[in-house]
Write a structure and sequence with these properties.
The chain has helices at residues 11-20, 27-32, 40-50; strands at 4-10, 22-23, 35-36, 57-63, 72-76, 82-86, 90-91, 95-101, 103-104, 108-109. By secondary structure, it is an alpha+beta fold. It has a single domain (4-109), classed as ADP-ribosylation fold, CATH 3.20.170.20. 28% of the residues are buried.
Length: 118
């Protein structure tokens, strides 16, 4: 599976995670019992489906080798595609980079050139 996965979240939530050392997930994540991630190939669709029109977001690039062992599971979701789900808080030390994910009317979210699979 991919070494890099991505989390889209409000920048304020990530700033709070930076202060505490970990990210517990969004309200949806906590209700589902895991933190939702996307691969580079899934991130744009995730943004369009779940974050359309939202501003103040960031895209967190996460190194899966830095996650708690056994906590990341690849499970079927949209159309049977496998999505990465983290069954633990996300340590901020697993983040390789955090990029703004601005919204532009008529264009959607503008993703950084750094979005990549590995």
């Amino acid at each position: 599976m991919n070494r890099l996965v991505y989390k889209i979240c409000p920048g304020a939530d990530w700033a709070q995670a930076m202060s505490s050392g970990s990210y517990a997930g969004s309200a949806v994540d906590r209700a589902d019992g895991f933190i939702h991630f996307s691969t580079a190939g899934q991130a744009r669709e995730t943004a369009a489906k779940h974050f359309a029109g939202q501003t103040g977001l960031v895209l967190v690039q996460v190194d899966t080798t830095r996650l708690p062992q056994g906590a990341l599971k690849w499970e079927p979701s949209r159309g049977g595609a496998l999505f990465p789900h983290l069954y633990a808080p996300l340590p901020v030390s697993a983040a390789l980079r955090v990029d703004p994910l601005p919204w532009r009317d008529g264009e959607g979210h503008l993703f950084p050139e750094s979005l990549q699979d590995a």
